[in-house]
Amino acid sequence: MTAGIALICTFALAGCGRDGDAAATGAAKPVDDSPATGTISVWAAQGDADVLDKVIKPFKAKNPDLDVDFTLIPNAEYYTKLQSAIAAGKGPDVAQFFPESQSQFLDPSILQPVPNDLVDPDSFFKSLWGAGVVKDVAYTVPWYAYTYALVYRSDIAKKAGVKAPTTWDDMVPFFKALQGAGAGRGLGADNGWDVFNGQDAAMYAWQAGGSLLSSDGKWTLDTPEMADAIKYNASFFTSGAADTSTPTFLDAQPYFTDGKTASMITGPWVIGQLDKAAGKDGWTASHVATAPLPAGASSSASFSAGGSWGVLADSDNSDASWKFVRALSKPSTQVSQYKAYSSLPAVISAWDDPAIADQPLLDAFLTQLKNTRAFPQVSTWQQVATRLGKEMEAVAKGTETAEEAASNVQSYAESLGTGSE
User: Fold this and answer.
1) What's the total number of domains in the chain?
2) Beta bridge mates, 373
3) Pairing of strands 288-291, 149-153
4) DSSP string spanning 231-285?
């Protein structure tokens, strides 16, 4: 499961700030229902797209005169190679993007607007659709979705006599109770101190009632709400509920199944992987529970992330390309994608399919996806989030205050701007 790509934008784009109605689409002509023909080239990052050839078999059967040429690129190299290809005029017809880090591509010189009536914007999680909209024009169509929720050891919580926390104030006591019931640490925290920690801080700032950008597109990071978010994150470590150095990303699941940690703030992909980590079928069902994130002073909002598709501005076969994207947005196709790779649908109605609806541990993620916000649609957000992650490390380790961290991030963000000046 892809957790986003933290890469620096090499395009100098104008007007990357998102505003206006997030339900808007483009002004391109509608795409009809006739069979797609010719050839289209499709680029995607390795991971969720690995199963696409299998998933689109029904589409290929209905469009026998269409050849789909897939190119799968290692995740860490994907955006760099895509940017280079676009700059050289050698990009694909269709490309995969990541809603949490796609803003540098949302420009008519790079992507075509989504055609009128190609899809129903209201069928997707609102923040995922909005992540592809700039100045009332939609450039991408959501494909799969994820967000963060609380995943915890239900057996240890039962032993401790505690229920999942619902507010920030409940969080550390919950973790400490898990430790008191035998867990090594109450929380297995993300210790990359990188862009993903910065994304956590954004999430907590929203929960505290803050924002990351003002209505006129200026950074608003040096605020009491951001300081509260950084303090909240640091409290996991200063309380002893989490360790500032372990587990690392690859250690998170075995630490959890071994009881070295008893909870994670993470994405839904772990649900299908814990049996393997535990070495026992059925372990997850009897040892794990999930819950939406606890609420701060303002909300319990999380962030939206996942995968999306766009058609390049210079595509040689726009008609077939959009028909391909439309097929991937259908609920039945997104359910097939879930069955093949556990990629959760971006189309809300697809969650009603028994394959997903009968998975109770996914309920918290559905609840949380309905309460999400998109990261700033500006080209420098990934850099700012990365710096924010490093500042969070300093606060968690006690070498700077949350207020100093917020001020440092604000200064850094202002030095970068938003890429839309």
Assistant:
1) 2
2) 303
3) antiparallel
4) HHHHHHHHTTSS-SS---GGGHHHHHHHTSB-EEEE-GGGGGTHHHHHTSTTHHH
Q: What are phi and psi of 244, to 5 degrees?
A: -75, -10
Burial status of residue 263 (CB atoms within 10 A of its CB: 0-12, 13-18, 19 or more): buried
- 133 closest CA partner among 116, 121, 123, 118: 121
* Same domain as 206, residue 128: no
Given this model, what pLDDT does residue 368 score? 98
- CA 268, CA 147: separation in Å to the nearest integer? 7
Model-level pTM?
0.90
Contact 211, 220 (CB under 8 A): yes
In contact, 348 and 124? CB cutoff 8 Å: yes
H or E element that contains 120: none
Amino acid (one-letter) located at 225: E
In the sheet where 38-45 sits, what is the strand order? 66-73, 38-45, 94-97, 305-311, 141-146
Q: Say what percent of the chain tops pLDDT 90.
A: 90
Q: What is the SS3 assignment for 53?
A: helix
Q: Are residues 219 and 281 in the same domain?
A: yes
Task: Let me know if residue 9 belongs to a domain.
Answer: no
Q: What is the dihedral of CA 312, 318, 320, 325, to 10 degrees?
A: 40
- Beta-bridged to residue 345, according to DSSP, are 144
| Alpha helix (H) residue ranges in 346-380 | 354-357, 363-369
Same domain, 237 and 275: yes
- Flag whether 42 is in a domain: yes
Q: Phi and psi (nearest 5°) for 145?
A: -135, 150
Q: What does the alpha-carbon distance between residue 94 and residue 61 come to, in Å, rounded to a whole number?
A: 19
19: in domain: no
At 29 the pLDDT is 72
Cβ(255)–Cβ(199) below 8 Å: no
